Amino acid sequence: MTEFYGLPNAGEFWHWTNALHFVLVGLAGGIALLAALLQLRGHEEARRYTLLALLVIALDLFVLWAESPARFRFTHIWLFLSFRPPSPIWWGAWGLALAFLFSGLLYLEKGPRKLLAWILLLFSLVALSYPGMALAVNENRPLWNALLAGLFPLTALVLALGVAGLLRSGWAFYPLRLLAGASLLLALLYPLTLSPEAREHLWEEGGLLYGLFLLLGLGVFWRERLAPWAGLLATAGLRALLVAVGQWQGFGL
After folding, report:
1. pTM here?
2. Which residue in 56, 135, 161, 191 has its CB near the most CB atoms, within 10 A?
3. pLDDT tens digits, residue range 187-218?
4. Beta strands of 119-222 (E only): which ranges?
């Protein structure tokens, strides 16, 4: 995970800024996906969501730059000069950058709208997929397993739909509840996929918060005006918690 930063992949090397990035990248990918779909449908809200996608992607790219130990050496530019298809981080960097580019072209109306929207849709899916894959490939982190490759894209969409709900987009509430339910189901199953040692660590270091976030997530099925907040806070909390607690390597690693 840290090979591009030149740091050893050992110990707890990530901090709160990294957890923030894993929340923002999900929101950025989700909003970009919504913007692309709205553009394809010619929806009246398409332009607003395209601008929002631009802003959130820009914020996340700034956080990604700021949290890098090599931020002032700009050695992470190597991500864009190298060809590393097996690396989820490489895909994530390109996915975010190109989603930003095509969101900008769509917002400025520079090019064929449908074609640009399809391209944005593609790169938004890359941005959605990258975080879970980036964690799942770490074989020496027992808490980061293959289930996260499904959980993280789902929670990213819940984040985006939560924002859409707060913006009073009526179309957001049904998919918000549907995807929140799927996310909660995977989150409930997740501890069962861990080794006993990893599960014990999860309960010791974040069990209380994990349970609270699951309970909060149930709020999406309650009152409509509270559903977006419940979805946003629950999924943001789960993503940040799994990044922070999951850095543990286990005994003997």
Report:
1. 0.88
2. 161
3. 999 999 999 999 999 999 999 999 999 999 99
4. none
- Domain residue ranges in the chain: 16-245
The residue written with tokens 């398409």 in the block is 46
Query: CA-to-CA distance for 202 and 168, rounded, in angstroms?
Result: 36
**Full DSSP string of 65-129:** HHT-TTTTTTGGGHHHHS--TT-HHHHHHHHHHHHHHHHHHHHHT-S-HHHHHHHHHHHHHHHHH
Q: Cα(179)–Cα(154) distance, rounded to whole angstroms? A: 6
| d(C-alpha 27, C-alpha 166), whole Å | 14
Pseudo-torsion of CA 74, 76, 80, 84, nearest 10°? Answer: 160
CA 113 to CA 116: how far, in whole Å? Answer: 5
- What are the tokens at 7? 């740091």
Which tokens sit at 153? 């894209």
Homologous superfamily assigned to 16-245: Formate dehydrogenase/DMSO reductase domain (1.20.1630.10)
Residue indicated by tokens 């060809």: 83
pLDDT tens-digit map of 216-245: 999 999 888 899 999 999 999 999 999 999
